[in-house]
Fold:
Amino acid sequence: MATRIMPARVTEILRGSPEFSTFNQLLRRSHVIAEIDTDDQLTVFAPANEAFEKMPPNSLGALIADPAALHEAVLFHIIAGAYPEVALRAESSVMTLA
Structure:
């Protein structure tokens, strides 16, 4: 009998990637993590910590202070389905979960 190996959930991948720790924290704060911590296939465009460091002063804090805006901003970085890079390059646009 063959054993089926399930791909890691997006949340597991992000937890194991320190360079995405800020985005991972935003996933938790926005409660989006509960929505995506499933076996559903997703593609996440997770900004690295470096991207957050380049944001204007206080803008990240303002986003965190606005739960609705934070929720939408995080969902803007997620699309339903698993898309390899080559498939994304062929798309002119994709529909995010936001």
Summary: The chain has a mean pLDDT of 87. The beta strands are 42-44, 78-80.
